[in-house]
Structure formats: C-alpha cells, structure tokens
Records
---
Amino acid sequence: MERTGTGNGNEENFLFMENVIDFLEANKEELARKATDRIYRDLESYKKGGMPAEESYESLLKLMEFIITSLKSGDVRIESPFMQNVIQFEEGLACRRVTYRIELADLLHGMRIFRNEIWKALESEFWQKADCRCLFKLEGRLNKFFINHMISVSVYYLHSQEEVIRYQERALKKWEDIISTASRIDLAIPCKNEFALVARSQAETLARRANFNEEEIQEIKTAVGEAVDNAIEHGNSEKGINLHYLIGERDFQVIIVDFGKGFDSHGKGLEMPDLLAERGRGIFLMRKTVDEVEIDSVEGRGTTLILTKFRNPKAAEKSPV
C-alpha cells in the first residue's frame, strides 16, 4: 500500500495505532537490546562504570512497556496518573545511575539512543504503509513522552546526588560513633570502584583515633587505597572483599581479603617500578608507606594482605585502646 497524504479519519488512525502497538510488542526485546548495545559501546560512563548491561536492558524494556501503554491510552500529560507511575519508575532509574556513577549527559544520551532506535524501526515498518499525518502524530507523541521522561529523570538524578551526599555524611558520622570505642572493625564491601573511597575513609578515621600524626595517616590511607584498588581489580568476585581493621597496643593493622584468582606474590614490590607506568606500583607503595606488608596468595583461591603500621609509644598511651 502506497503512502498518501489523505486518510480515513479516526478509524484509519485507530487501526494504524493498533498496528504500531502490535509491532512494538513484538519487537520490544530486540529494540531494547539494540539500544543497550549502543549505549555500552558509545557512552564512556556506561563503559567504565560497574552497572551491569543487563540491568540497563531491563530498564529499557520496562520503559518500552510504558511507551506502549501511553500509546494505548493517549495520555502523556505529566500530571496524569499513568505518567506519575512512570515518574516513580524514573526516580528509581535515576538513583541507580547515580549509584553507578553514570554521568547525567550519558543517561540522557542513552534515552535519545533508545528513542532513535524505536523511531528508526517504526519508520522502516510503516513509512510506505501509513498516512503521513498518522506518522507525524505518532512521532509527536513519542517525542512528548521522551521529553517528559528526560525532564523527570534529570530532576530525580540531581535529587539523588544530593541524597547520596547526605547519606554519606550520616554514614560517616555513624561510623565515627561506632569506632570511637571499638578496637576491631570488620567490613564487607562489593568489588566496585566507588567502595575504595569508603575503605580509605575508614582507615583514616581509625588511624586518627590511634593518634597517628598527619603524615602517618596519609601513608596508611595510601597503602589501604592501593590494596583495595588491587583487590577490586584483580580479585573481582561476587563474594566481594572483607576488610578487618585492628588497633592494638603496639600497631594498627588492616587485613584485606579477596576471593579472586590469586597471584604469585614472590618478590612483588621490592624494586622501584617505572614511575611513568600506569600500573604495577601498588605493592611497592604499600611497602614504602607502612612498616610491614604480608601477602598470602594462592592461585585460584584468592589473596589475604596484611598491612601493619607500628604505633608511637607515646601516641599509643593517649589512645583509648
């Protein structure tokens, strides 16, 4: 059937929309997968972040279901009950992107990629079959949906960033209250880059409590940061990483346990590495910033690394431990 500039009014538009909905229902998985693949190929914070591609795919699939529902109902007003349900979904979507450090620009670009994949498929399917006025109206409705969606996601993304900051401040205060009396703290974290900062902050807080001076505190932070970075990168496992902080009368120890592949630790970090190299300096820096570094690594079973910093006797006397 050749595309023309005339149509048969409401009945033709109704039949056209039914065909569009059937087409999107039949192809929603393929369209969501294509968009996901492009997003993870083209957008840096998706490529570098820890957000699983499958989670993004499921989000786009859910968004497609909302699009189909909006085409059925014809109501994409932002104040409508349907759009309020969409917004609730968007709030969770934005929060997850903030958690995984997906840049807002990439989040919005990803939405544009998805919109373009949908429209490209619709054009290919209906360009020669439908009245042009039906196509223009469909494009307008699709654009309006995505504009409302992108506005809402942007607002909730910025709100979620503020919430994360407030949560981190509360968590740090709670952590400081806990460690004000404890001589041992045990912690489990996932193998995600953002948690290296948590490990450094905890080491710094405990080192201050143990009355190390500022130089020593920075050395401890450096050693713990390098150790946790290595555990995240090389010991990547669903079991995560176990951290144990111990304040003794004579020393402060941090034990880092990962459940990765393990490695041959013989001779590691004993010689100065190439200072211009981007990798391979971690164990060397640990040995230079703390007093003792013990590595127990078995290939196929993971690695236990013990960092020890001796306490100044006078500082130890001032500590409540």
Note: Confidence is low (pLDDT under 50) at residues 1-7.
---
Amino acid sequence: MSDEQDDPAPPAGGPDEIQSATPAPTRARVAVDWEGLAVAAENQRTDLRHVLELASGQVRPLEAGEECSEAAVLVPPRPPREGWRTMHLFLDQIEDPAVREKLGAALVGRGAFRRFKDLLLAYPELRQQWFAFKDAEVLAYLARWLAREGVAPSNEPPARPDRSRLSAAVRRSAPAPAPAPLPGEALDWRAAVAPWDRPGTVFRPRRAALLVVDMQRAFVDPAGSAFLPAAPAACERLVALVAAWRAAHLPLFFTRHAHLEPRQDGGALSRFWRTLILEGTRDAELVDAFRPQTGERVVLKHTYSAFAGTPLEQALRGLGVEDVVVGGVMTDLCCETTAREAFVRDFNVFFLADGTATATPELQLGSLRSVAHGFGRVLGVDEALGVLAAAWAQGSGGG
C-alpha cells in the first residue's frame, strides 16, 4: 500500500477511536473491495474523497461537488497517528537489537516516516517485512472501521495485497476532469516549440544512433506501478521507428532503469521518490515491443541520465556516432536529462516529441520547449522516418 503522505505525529493519548469503538448494528453485508478500500484510507489529499458503495462493496472517488449518499459510506483517511503506531509496533518484530535501536531513533521528532523509510533501504529483507506488516495493519484497521460503520464483509481481506493492483487503483482514484491529450494528437507540440525550431536541422542516419529510453512495464504496461496513459501512443510510433532503424542497420540502444541495491545505487532518487524500480521485478522488464535483438545494446542505469555511470558515451564514440535521436519515457525526467547530457558531451540531439510520454500534457510541452530552446531539435516520428527514407532513396545513408 502507499506510504503515508504526511509526517505522522505521536498519538495524543488514549486508544484510537476506531479501535475502541463499539460495533454498530449491521446495515450491509457485502463482498468488500479491500484493496480499493486500503488505497482510499491511505489517501491524504484533501481534495479527493472516496466512498464505499454499500450495495456493491466497491470503492470509488467522489466527483467534484458530489456528496456521499445514504447508499454509501465516506472513507476517512487513516489518521497519521496510526502510521506512527504501526512503525512502533514493527520495532517489536525486529530481532537485531542494533537495527531496532536505529529505527527507533528515527521515529523521534518530525520527519519520522521519511527517516524510517530511508533507513530501511539498507535492509532489503527487513523492508519487505515492513511492507507486509504495514499492509496487515492497514487491513486490520479497516476491519475495525467497517465494524464501526455496520458493514459486515462477506469476504476475508487478502493475505497479501496485490501491489500492482494497488498502484492501478491509485491511478484510478486520481481526479480526471478531462482526458489528457496524447503527445502528437490533441497536444499541439509543434506550436509549442515553433519559436525555437530549426526545421533545416536533421540528423544524419549514417552518424546517428537511436536511444530508446526506459520502455519498461512500470511505465508502458497498464498494470505497471507508474503506468503513463500517454505511453501507448508514443509506444506505437516508436515501434515503427525502431523497425525502420533496424532495417537500416543503424546503431540502436535501449536503456532500462532498475536498482540492484537502493542503499548503494539509489542516490537522490531514493530520497526523492517513495518507491524505486527494483531489479528482478516485472516493473524492471522492457515490454515485449522493445525487446532487444541480437547485437543491440541495453544500458542499465540507476538515475535519470543514461550517461551517468554507464558505458553509453564510450559505445557511441566507438561507433562514430555524432547525432543521437531520443525517444521513450518519461519525457521530462529520463529523456530530457539524457538529451541534456548528450548535448554537453558534444552530441547533436534530436528529440522525438510524439515518441516520448510523461504524466501530463503540461510536463510534456514544458520539456519539449526546454529542449528546443537550448539542447536539440524537437521533431516528430514521421519526420524521423522521412529522413531515413530520403537518405536511403538517395543511396547515401546521410553520411
């Protein structure tokens, strides 16, 4: 389940009101969506409220201005003191006294949960035990809450919640006033970059490499922990470009973001983001459409840049590459950082506006403007395909 959003404070005396409350008369017996209920309870956003439908047992977000009806129960966020209590209870499960002391010290004062989580990165097995313990505590809390509300579940809570499903539920719970336009469709990226466009600047195929950044299940698969709704459209276009690139026998690189040991290779990412993509998990895999073929290189990276701490630059130099074409996810994070790093390493950068994807149209356009203004030429996949076709029609390969 999701980490607590707010810094938990020590409990202000007395047992939790839900823990001590007398069960209410049963008003509904229904199969409860436990995982959806857990996501709702862990939500700390004041602008987002969830209800449990008494007839179906399903959990859904309230629309803007909508009130909870008599046919539903408003799901309150789990109090921060519950998170603090859970962490203290977990200390009793730790056998190593030195580790228990370190984690106990982390719970003193403000910033407790952040310190607690950061320390757990050094103990991968203990971290997994924490997730299981916390999940069980959240579900137990919800069982007490349901009893207080007079809801009798006809199904037992899961022994271990499906975390990929929880991530999908978090995405479903986010407010969506209107469907986000996909890159290159309703999103008018050409107008956004027009003030800085250099239409006469094109890559030279014989001196170019295509960098496909992080097309992994985490971002591209709808079941991924960080699925991007804009990714499928970008994926479809990139597949066509990759096929043309392979047909032309040009250098093709895939990057894959994963962490072997977050304490060692997590760096600032482990402090900035609540979760990381761990090596060996489904999230870390490239989707089938971007499985490398024989001789194609995969660059494993641990931060936004595909150059930092990797052999990418050396490999590009060895192939005589001077122009890099960048596509993939996320536009404003790994793709843009890689493009900037390529530029400062004296490569010519060509950035695929509709062959990249990120979380929102605003972030997409902002990143494209930034690249066009100071780091490279922003172009569409169709133009890139046209450059390849024109070069080979002339029999030169653009060299």
Note: The chain has 16 helices and eleven strands.
